[in-house]
Amino acid sequence: MRTGLARRVLAAGLVSLVTVAGCGVQPSDVIVAGDPPSGAVAPTTTITLYLVKNGRLNAVTRPGPGGRPLFKADTLALLAAGPTAREKAHGLTTDVPPEAGPFSVTAKPAGHLVVTLSTPAGELSTLAVEQIVCTAAATAPVNPAQVTVVGAGQSVGPQKCPE
Predict the structure, then answer these.
(1) What DSSP designation does 16 have?
(2) Which phi and psi angles does 50 have, rounded to 5°?
(3) Is the CB of residue 44 less than 8 Å from the CB of residue 67?
(4) Cα–Cα distance for residue pair 33/10, rounded to 1 Å
(5) Alpha-helical regions (H) of 22-162
(6) In angstroms, rounded to a whole number, what is the distance separating the alpha carbons of residues 20 and 150?
(7) pTM for the complete prediction?
(8) C-alpha span between 102 and 8 (Å, rounded)
(9) DSSP state letter for 99
């Protein structure tokens, strides 16, 4: 009795297999798709930050985050976090205090950006404001961008990057 059940299950399995095998991809002629890709690999994205060295602004580029875009506010957060160990070894610093973040950036018409801080904008040093203005402007599609820095009811700008 058990042998009969096993044969029926095996037969049903074979019928199913034949049915499924008959639904495969139909043969076709060769499909010409053109030449394979060639040329240089697309460059990785870079981030431009403006750090301070000897009391002056210095543009610094860093590699981007693995092919994904970085938001303007994230770039400013990197500015407030300060230079990397390598950048510090080259004498670079930041005047933007860590408590200035988190940041938000709003794009206005005609290449105007508004950067909102978590601290009073009027209490920032001139260099800190210039760092924020230049770093935010570097991310703007329209250059030179005008940037207004706002925080705790205080506003600085609009101004352009002095470099």
Answers:
(1) H
(2) -110, 110
(3) yes
(4) 44
(5) 72-81, 85-89, 126-138
(6) 66
(7) 0.67
(8) 69
(9) G
- The tens place of each residue's pLDDT in the chain, 163 residues long, gives 567 666 776 666 656 655 555 555 566 666 666 565 555 544 457 788 999 999 999 999 888 766 555 567 788 888 889 999 999 999 999 999 999 888 888 888 777 888 888 889 888 999 999 998 888 888 776 666 788 888 888 888 888 888 6
Rounded to whole angstroms, the Cα distance separating 112 from 28 reads: 57
Is 10 exposed, middle or buried (CB count within 10 Å of its CB: 0-12, 13-18, 19+)?
A: exposed
Residue 58: the pLDDT is 92
Q: Which amino acid is at 107?
A: A
Determine phi and psi for 142, rounding to 5 degrees. -105, 120
| Residues facing 152 on adjacent strands | none
3-state class percentages of the chain: helix first, strand second, coil last, to nearest 5? 35, 25, 45
pLDDT 10s digits, 43-66: 457 788 999 999 999 999 888 766
DSSP, res 93: B
Give the neighbor-by-neighbor strand order of the sheet with 112-116: 104-108, 112-116, 146-151, 154-159
